[in-house]
Structures are given as structure tokens and as C-alpha cells.
């Protein structure tokens, strides 16, 4: 896990290793997390992640068949994480999970370098597909993107604080204690308005494209990346490292403020 403070996102979900309330009070009591991975080391790493991230205990299985048998007997978990070097039976496991409890969140880690399994698992019902290697931060961001505030997340790394910035009618961006404004282009203004409104949450490229250009985003289109790069430079020149525009791989962008430490008084 990343170093530094790990503040908890304020949500109404209950942190309880024995029951799942992620998808409403009508959800049955069931296993919170099932991890499917051949290697004990990977099982332990993912179990430690979910415990630190969500406060939830994990039940590990070495094969998809074993996990499917458990689900058929005991019901679906709140989260199903599949990370197999040889994903035999993974699609069947996902389909079985979808039949009984569609509310489960299912993540699949594609072991191939070219994403050969991604389409199959998505069509089977997976909510998201990751590629190795991935960081704890990326996994947390994807959980946040898919489950939103319903998931009791502790975000690894620095605190995600909503940035308190304003943009006037002349595309000038100012902070709460800024001495001068940052001049944005009209497109940069549109992007920043969406990022500020998000309150620190991830804004997908498709959402930006629909809101700004009124068109669907096409995979591979980097039309926003150029503007994001320029925005980062302007923010860095004006505010240093205080504000972060983060690119979350295959997801989108998030914008937040890193709390500034107050200088300690020198000993006299």
C-alpha cells in the first residue's frame, strides 16, 4: 500500500467485516469479498488491500470452479475479484455470479499483455477489467468509479480534498488565497468546470465528451489529454503542488487539493 495518510471517505455505508450493506438495506448478509487467485502471495496481498481499503475480510480461492461452487451454496459476495494467470472457468464464474445477485461488483484482472480476455469477461458480466501491473491507487480508483459513495473506501496516498477554486466569465481561475489569476482557454475552462464540479471524483472521458462536445467519446481519442497537460502546467506554475489533476488509466481524470502542512514553529 502507498505511504502517507489514508483518510476515510465519508459515506453512509457501514464498515462491517461480517455483513454487506453496500447495495442497500435489502441486501442479504453474505461474504464481503471473494478473491480468486492461484498464488498464496497474491491472495494475501489482495486480502490486505481490501481490509485496508474497505475494512472488509476476504475469502480466498485458488480456482474459479471452487469459487463458483461456494457461491452456488452460499450466495454472492459484495465484491468478486478474479486474478488468475490462467483464467479457466472465470467467465462461467462471472455468469453464475450475475444470475443470482446482479448487484455484486465484479473485477477481473486480465493476465494477457494484449487484453485478449477483456471482451469475454465484460460480456460475461464483469463490471471492470484491469491490466497488470496495476497500483493499489488504480484499483481503489476503479472501485470508487464503479461503486461510488456506496463503498466505504479509504483512499491510499494523499488526502483527496475538494479543490476550492473559482473561474470567472473571462476564464480566469483563482484560488482562495491566490494573489493572481490563471488564464485558461475556453476549452480548458470547460474541462476545469467539470473537474471542479466532480468534487474529487473521477470524471470519465466519455462524460467530458458528452458534456462539452455533446458527442460520445471514442476509445483512443486523446483530444482531452493535450488540454489536461497544459492545465497541469498552469496550475503548477501558479500553485506549486497544491492542486492535482490526475489521469486514472482507462478511467478518466480527477481533480483535488493536497492539504498544505503548516510550517512548525522553530525552537528557540
How far apart are the termini? 38 Å
From the spread of the alpha carbons, the general shape counts as elongated
Q: Supply Rg.
A: 21 Å
Main-sheet strand order equals 2-1-3-4-5
CATH C-level label of the largest domain: Alpha Beta
Indicate the structural class.
alpha/beta
How many distinct beta strands?
Answer: 11
Helix content bin: 25-40%
Largest sheet: 5 strands, parallel
What would a concise description of this structure say?
This protein is an alpha/beta fold and 268 residues long. Helices cover 35% and strands 16% of the residues.
Topology (elements, then pairings):
Blueprint: E1 33-36, H1 40-54, E2 58-61, H2 64-74, E3 79-82, H3 90-100, E4 105-110, H4 118-124, E5 128-131, H5 136-147, E6 166-167, E7 172-174, E8 182-183, H6 186-197, E9 203-204, H7 205-213, H8 223-239, E10 243-248, E11 252-257
Helix pairs in contact: 2-3, 6-8
Task: Explain what the structure shows.
By secondary structure, this protein is α/β, with parallel strands linked by helices. It folds into two domains: 33-150, Response regulator (Rossmann fold), CATH 3.40.50; 166-257, Arc Repressor Mutant, subunit A, CATH 1.10.10.10. Helices cover 35% and strands 16% of the residues. It contains eight helices and eleven strands. The protein has helices spanning 40-54, 64-74, 90-100, 118-124, 136-147, 186-197, 205-213, 223-239, and strands at residues 33-36, 58-61, 79-82, 105-110, 128-131, 166-167, 172-174, 182-183, 203-204, 243-248, 252-257. The strands form three sheets. It has a five-stranded parallel β-sheet with strand order 2-1-3-4-5, with helices on both faces. Helix 3 (90-100) links the parallel strand 3 (79-82) and strand 4. Helix 2 packs parallel to helix 3. The chain is elongated, with a radius of gyration of 21 Å. It starts with 32 loop residues before the first strand and ends in an 11-residue tail after the last strand. The relative contact order is 0.12. The model is unreliable at 1-29 and 263-268 (pLDDT under 50).
